[in-house]
Recover the amino acids of this structure.
């Protein structure tokens, strides 16, 4: 290592840390609002990690949901939506 640069680093090291996958991760899904029951099409961001938790509002009744998003290694997604008490 000279001047803070790791001479042993390779592009393969980067690929191991951040695998590209096959680009088939789901980016949209439809969920039903736990308050009004209406279907909502939502966008998903696979780049935010394989497990995510965040708040999103219903597009119909505007109540907040607690969203749990979990990506499998094949890019498929499981989304759970709960009424948010916050």
């Amino acid at each position: 290592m000279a001047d803070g640069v790791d001479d042993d680093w390779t592009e393969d090291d980067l690929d191991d840390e951040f695998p590209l996958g096959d680009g088939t991760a789901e980016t949209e899904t439809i969920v039903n609002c736990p308050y009004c029951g209406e279907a909502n099409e939502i966008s998903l961001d696979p780049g935010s990690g394989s497990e995510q938790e965040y708040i999103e509002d219903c597009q119909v009744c505007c109540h907040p949901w607690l969203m749990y998003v979990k990506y499998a290694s094949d890019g498929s997604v499981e989304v759970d939506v709960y009424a948010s008490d916050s």
